[in-house]
Amino acid sequence: MARPLSNILLKGIAGLPAVRVRSTSTVFRSFNCNGMRYSTTVPNDPDTHEDFQPNNKLESSGMSLKDIVEQDVKDNPVMIYMKGVPDFPQCGFSSLAVRVLKHYNIPLSARNILEDPELKSAVKSFSNWPTFPQIFIKGEFIGGSDIILNMHQSGELKEKLQDVATSQKSE
């Protein structure tokens, strides 16, 4: 009689000697995007040279996250908080928003919320909006990818971005 392949594999694995792994302090980060779970590990080993230690550039700026979000929105005509970066979005909604905005050939500033869960919370608090991406145009919170797409289809986004494109050409 044939035994199921899974039984053979499990018995084979169970017969292998255990491997001892050296214990190090590791930070595990995980995130979900389009129903898929992604995990990353960040070593937090004190023996690792500081050049290779993970660091948070936002924390080292000396500003609060709330102040950073306010400054981002004020200083950038088009600001998007997204999963990933414009050249490599890490979810479909962020990808859609970037594609729509790039259609207008305007400068786009962005921050990757997956790099810092505290930044993600700060942006949510700032806008009172629970989902990402979050798009701000000329200091005004617009919404997410669905709203940007609807504005694009109705022509409203072109009007909203017209002076952004004009001001960039004059600089």
CATH H-level superfamily title of the domain at 65-158: Glutaredoxin
Q: Taking strands numbered 1, 2, ... along the chain, how are they ordered across the largest sheet?
A: 6-3-7-8
What Rg do the Cα atoms give? 22 Å
The level 1 CATH classification of the domain at 65-158 is: Alpha Beta
What is the β-strand count? 8
Largest sheet: 4 strands, mixed
Enter the CATH topology name of the domain at 65-158.
Glutaredoxin
Written account of the structure:
With 171 residues, the protein is α+β, with helices and mostly antiparallel strands. Helix content is 42%, strand content 22%. Helix 3 packs across helix 5 (117-127) and helix 4 runs parallel beside helix 6 (145-154). It is globular, with a radius of gyration of 22 Å.
Entry keywords:
single chain; 171 residues; alpha+beta; Glutaredoxin; four-stranded mixed β-sheet; two-stranded antiparallel ribbon; 7 helices; 8 strands; 42% helix; globular
Topology:
Elements lengths: L4 H10 L11 E8 L2 E8 L13 H4 L4 H11 L2 E5 L1 E2 L2 E2 L2 H11 L6 E4 L4 H11 L6 E4 L2 E4 L1 H10 L1 H15 L1
Parallel strand pairs: 3-6
Antiparallel strand pairs: 1-2, 3-7, 4-5, 7-8
